[in-house]
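Q: Got a minute? One more chain.
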Amino acid sequence: MRAVVQRVDGAAVVVDGETVGEIVGEGLCVLVGVTHEDTREKAAQLARKLWSVRILQGEKSCSDTAAPLLVISQFTLYGDARKGRRPTWNAAAPGPVAEPLVDEVVAQLRALGARVETGRFGADMKVSLTNDGPFTVLLEV
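A: Always. Here it is, folded:
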């Protein structure tokens, strides 16, 4: 699994003009990509890492401050544009494999006590955020 994690001061995701997920104030906006070898165990590992990674102000984590997370599926994180001008998506897991694993990341975060908002899997989403820092990291498990 791969996640692009941004420290934000507010973020929202809109589908067909409707806000389906939003966090206000300090938190994390997390884009999650799933590949073919990923498992529920990797989803749980990613959730634990997201909950405890110390990238908020003052080197705090979401677990320290109860900061919310906005988790959005992002199959394009496994795009490969090394050859030609058009990316391939061969490394991205198909929807029936990826969706339950993204849902598992969210469920594991909530089990840890996190407040989690989400996008809508497979939808055309419009994501807006204020990157605080800017601060962006890539996590892989």
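A: The longest strand covers residues 18-33.
Q: Perfect, thanks.
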